[in-house]
Every structure is written in C-alpha cells, then in structure tokens.
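Replying to the earlier thread about multi-chain prediction with a worked example.

Input:
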Amino acid sequence: MTRTLHILQGGPTLSVQDLGRPGYRAQGLTVAGAMDPLALYEGAALLGQPPTCAAIEMAGTGSSFQCDETLRIALTGAAMSASIDGEPLVWNASHILPAGATLTIGGAREGSYGYLHLGGGIATEPVLGARATHLRAGVGRALETDDALPVGPDTSRTIAMTLPRDNRFSGGALRCVASMQTGSFASEVLERFCETTFKRDPRANRMGVRMDHVGPGFTTQGALSIVSEVVVPGDIQLTGDGAPFVLMCECQTTGGYPRIGTVIPCDLPRVAQAPAGSAIGFEFMDMDTAIATQQRYTEMLKALPRNVTPLVRDPAKMRDLLSYQLVSGAISARANPFDKET
Amino acid sequence: MTEWPIIRTVGLSGVLVTFAEKMSEPANRAALAFRADIAAQAWPEVTEASTSLVSTFIEVDLAETPAALIKERVQNHLATRDWYAAPLPEGRTLWHVPTVYGTDLAPQLEEAAEVAGVDPDTAIKELSTSRVRVLTIGFAPGQPYMGELSETWNIPRQEALTKSVPPGSLVIAIRQLIIFTNASPTGWRHIGQTAFQNFRPASDMPFALTPGDELIFPSVSRAELLRIREHDTSGNGGAEREQIR
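Result:
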C-alpha cells in the first residue's frame, strides 16, 4: 500500500534531504544532503530506522502536512512550534500523525533548520543514488504547494520517544584545523582571527554562512594568485572584503579564494543551526586533538539509539490515549543502525 | 624553492597533491593521470579522487585513517613514475558545439575582443576555430574549464561580477573558456551562447564531459541556435561528437 504525504503549503524553505550523494566530486557535484546531518541521525534513532532515510528539511519555518494513512513522525533539529489539529507537540520526539489530521509546523524558536521525519522515510525516486535535493546543482527542487511525497513501508511501531537536546542551536566556538592556505596568512592576522567574536550574518544558505565582525578584514598577500583548488564543507573562505564564509554542504567543488582554516565536520551542525546574530568564535586545534574530537562525535552518533527515552506525558491529559500502542513496539537497546543499509 | 608536487591535508577530508603553483599543461596532465591511477588502485580508505586544474584530491576520512599513513602511501606512489610526462586519458571525445557569438544572447563579445586587442570579427574567427581541452570539471556539476586559448586571450576577469549568465553560456578569461551549467553570477565575460547541457540528472549519462575531452565552438546564427533549442531535446544542443584516436 502506498502512503502519501501531502504538502499543504510549499515554499523555498522546504526540501527533501538525506545524508547526500557521495562519489561525484570529480564531476563537480558535492555530497550535500542535510545541513544538519546530526538531526537525521536523531530522527532515525527516535523512529528506530536507519539514518539513510530521507526527511523534510525546513529552513527557518515549517509548513502544513497531511497524510491519507496514519504515519509515525519525528521532529528534530531547530525547535519549531508544532501541532496536530491544534494539539501541541513536543519537539525532539516521535509522535503519531493520524490519517487525515493536519500537522502544522511554524517558525523556529531556537536554531535554524528543523526536520520532519516519517516512519519508513520518504520514498521518492533516487537520483544518482540519493534522494537529497541539491538546490544549487539543480538536482530536485524545493517542495511546492500540493506536492505529494511517497512514504516508504514502516516496519516499526514505536512512538512517543524523545532524545535529550544538545547545545548546538545558539552559535559558540567552532573547532578548526589548519588547511591548505592557513600558512599564507600573517601570524598577527591569524591571531586576530582567533580572538575575534563574530556574529552569524543573516546572509546564509545551504552553500555557506557569512560571519560578521567589527574591524578590518582578514586578508593574505597571495590572495589573487591562488590557483583554483578543491573546496570541502567547513572551509573558512575569505572573499574580497575579508569577511569569513564557512562553506556548507552545497558549496562548489573548487574555488580560488584563500581559506584560513577548516571547521571540523562534527561542528558543522553547530554552524548550520546558529541563528542570525548569534556569537561565533573560531578555535584552532592540532590534527590529533581534532581527530580525537571527531571520533568522539562518531561514537556519539552510534550511541544515539541507546539514548532514546520514553516521552513522559500525563495520561490524564492525553485525549488520544487509546490511539497509542502502549505495550508493543519496544526498541532494542543493542540495535546498531550502522549494521543496516548504511 | 618549493619542491613539486606537494602533499597537504584538507581539513579532515583527505589529502591534496599539487603539481605546480599555477596552471601549466604538464601539471594538468599529471593531475589527471595521477587521479586515474589512484582510482584504479582502489585503496580501501579512499572514497573518491578528483582533480582541479593542477591538483589531485584524494578523499580519505582522516579521523579513521592517520594522515601520516595516507601521505606516505601517496608519496610512494608519486615516486613510481614521471607524472608530468603522462599521456592524456584514453577514450576521449571531440565535441563540435554550435555557438552564437555576440548578439543579445552573448552581450560581452565586443568588450572581450576590445580587452584582448582584436576586432570582433577576428575574435569570432579565432574563437570559433580554436580547439580546447577540458582541463578540469568543477564548481558546478559537469562544468568544464577548457583551455588553453592563444596568448591573445590572456585577459583578466572583470572586477565587477555579472549578476547572472544563463545555462549554456560560454564565458572567457585567462586563456580559458567555461560553459556554465546553471544560471550563475560570474567575473568571466559572456561571449557566446550554446544550448549544451553539462549536467543531465535524469539521463543515463548525467555528466556530458570528462577531463581530457576536446571541444570546438563553431559559429552559428542566432536563428539557428533558436531552431536547435526547439528541436534538440537530448541536451547536446545540436553538438556533434567523434572519438579522438
């Protein structure tokens, strides 16, 4: 039986995303995928399914959704106001969306990118091995009003689970390593860069996030003669006016602007979620420390399914109590999502 | 003096082998040949290898594989031959891509000719008969950087960006040409318009060009290009192709 999720109101902020499309850099196509991949792992843990399942990414604000069949859903990433037929929903948790009910998701209260996950995942036809929309490359497009998305078969029944929230939604220190051109910057420029408190500029999208500061720009002598080189997400690029851009998942594959350093992958969700105006700093680490930090993040991702706990609600206030599966559908604490189709 | 090639880490994403400080024919061939060879080695820790003009990027998760280890393997592999003398890849294609020069479809032909110090007719004659090679694919999916044109075309990028050039536009700077994949702002001058699509996501051959392929951009009339746009739905934009032997 095919289940279909209806988008009652589309817009440029909504797109289907998964963990991206690796293997095409040589052809000029970056991996891309979700701006906050950690949110995809959280959604997968809440619904007890693989992190490769595609979800809906909502930049800054959500939309209204409806399904002709009952669905399990989970909400992760930037906390947004959410309700089903007027009944408020807890963020960072899994819920039931009854057939025909309207799920309404509003603006972000904390962070920038919210995610709507569906039990079974979105089952659109993969392009080049992934379902992720790559807006800049023209692979797929933003969701439009009246779009209908097929939903994959759901093999689990667990709902009303939650995960603790972390602190990645308000900016903060970004951990970096030296990159190709770090050495071409004068030591006093590097020092000033590390001591500066930046503000996340409102100009940000899936390609990159601009950081503002008071004072002169950060430049290097050799800036104009740099031959075009590979670009990776996390690269801190300095364009003409010397303001840093942290390049994100839809960045170009090559570029000729100097890069002062690279934000390590585990801090990119923090860049993505930093709201406009939040304070940002850059902190350089040596390679060994950065590697150990990144390894801890990978371990944390693997442990997510074990950290899911039941959402505590007062049964007396639950009008929909009888619609819940109250006994069956427990998830295994030892299940490792990495054992399944990763 | 720097000893080329040099090997550097790129964030925690891999290592970059750079064969020269700036664009040169032997360094470009070295980068292409080294990439092809790394791909053929199929080292388990390497997820992908790609090139820019004069470098090969080897994608490796450095949180899983120590940088020193992969650098040493790359260093040893570099020592196995003279990459600067490597031949071009095999199985290359020569494309003839119909192009409108100038008119409202490509409004910066005259400006580019003036900067290059030639009159527009000479410019069209020279550009429409130059055979260029795909030096690298990058920036956007399937987008070729092609060269090198004669020294006449060693013109700088314009200081102010053009707000947007359309898909299929042919732009020029620093002895190179680009066909744009998608509408994009650019500092390069828009001298020609084609109906060629670099990237065809729904097709079984989504990336039309490969580094090493060669192209000629014969001049056609505005009317002819409009006719091609209407009739050729393949993405080739009326282009003909032949195998290079």
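The longest strand of chain B covers residues 46-52.

Feel free to reuse this layout for your own posts.
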